Structures are given as C-alpha cells and as structure tokens.
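Hi U.,

Before I forget, here's the chain from the pilot set. I'm dumping it here mostly so it's searchable later in email.
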Amino acid sequence: MSKKAEIHLEYISVDDLHEFEGNPQEQSQDTFNNLIQEIETDGFDEPLQVVKAPDLGSGQYRIVSGNHRYVAARLLDYDELPVIVRDWDDLTARIKLVRRNRLKGDINSQKFTKLINSLSEEEQLDHEVLQEMMGFVNIDDYMKYFKDDEAKKEKGAHAATKEVDTQLKLVDNLSQVLNRLFTDFGDTVPFSFMFFTYGSKMHLMVQMNDKLKRLTEKITKKCAEDGLDINVVFPGLLDMGIEATAFLTGPPEIVEIEERADNEDDNSDLKAITDASSPN
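Structure:
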C-alpha cells in the first residue's frame, strides 16, 4: 500500500533563520543572479529545510538546505519564508548539508574539507562511510572535493591494501590449481617438479650434478661475503672460461674440460657434449 507524503509547512521570520556555518555549497554570481530573477518571477515556492538551533537562542533555526535562496529572499525584502522543520540531530544535519546542497551548486573544496575533518574527528567516521552517507557515487568523486593530504595517503593505503588482498586471492587460487595438477599428474613428471613459462619470455632451467651445485654455492657464498653482485660475477667468470677454451668460437677443448670435472662420478652432461662432438 502506498504511503501519503506528509509535509508540515511553517512560515518563520527571516530574522530567526541563520545560514549553516561552513556550508560547502557555492554558486557563481551568474547562477545566484538567475536565482534572484526566478524568485522575483515565480515567488518563493520551495521551502527551506531547517533544524532548531538552540545554541543561537530560543526560536532560532539553522538552514540545512536553501542557504542561497535565503540570502536571495533577504535581498528581495521577504519578511518570512516557508520552511520544513526537521528533527535531525547535528550529525544528520551536517550530512544533509552536503547531500542536498551539492545537487544545486558547486562544492567549495576548502569548506568541504573542513566539514569532513570535523565529522571524522568528532563522530569517528571514515571516508568511505561519509562518501556513502553524503550520496557520492564513489570514493573518487568524493575525493575530488576533499583536499586533505593525509586523507589522500589514507586512500592510497586503502587502495594498496585492496591490491594486496587481490594478489593474495590470486595466489590462493593458483595454489589450488597447482595442488590439483600435482595430485593428478605429479607421478608422471620425472623430477618431482613442474616448470611453467609465461608469455614470450625465455626461461632457463639447469639440472645440476653435485659438482656444479657445489661450485655454484661457493660462488654465491663468496659474492655474499664480499658484497659482490652475482649478476656481474657469473657472467664474468663464464666469459673468461669461454674465451680461454674458445668454447663458442671454435672446436671446444672437451677433453680438458672433461678432465677438470673427472673427479665427479656423475658427469652425464659432459659426456653428452663429448659424444655429440665425437665423429661417428
């Protein structure tokens, strides 16, 4: 069953009405002049939304919506104005101050920021809550008017947290996929691991025998102890070895290389190189 809208209209003296301090809405001079012309032509046909203001005295009211119409009416020598008295508390009144007025004019960033800082401090409300309460479509729309550096940092931190949460979710999903792969196909791979490539990037994987592993560990340890960059040391050592043996520019000295590694039992990789270079 539909409800009937009930509006209790009152007429209050302009002397008992007061602009809302720190109202963030602003109008250009042209817009305000058009407002005056409209009231002159059609009369004051839209009531103000007000709340009682006992801090200003008995019978006083603070304007939540219609501050510019109130100023225009005073310039046009109105004695009293139609109002709807709301029983909003202070928090609701300040939220409505933005929510209703921002649809009828521009928002002054400095006043808006001051109001938001006040609400954040006094009511312990964060920016996402205030954004929704004030009717902004999203946090970016809200932040266009909010010029506080700390809040921007907070927004950035919030975005970073959401990004981390997204990445963690992706990792969790990937773990489920990998667990399924290992469960279903793990017994079919020879080395107890799977190797994945991504896009067009080239990935290298070397299966080390014991000696190569020990040499690599020694080089890594030496770099760590002496503060050397292993990405510089490894290429340098390889370049020196390649140049000394002419490995890339001529017939490699496989015999000499094999002798240097001959004290290892597992030399299958070196044997493969020797077999490949030996005439049939």
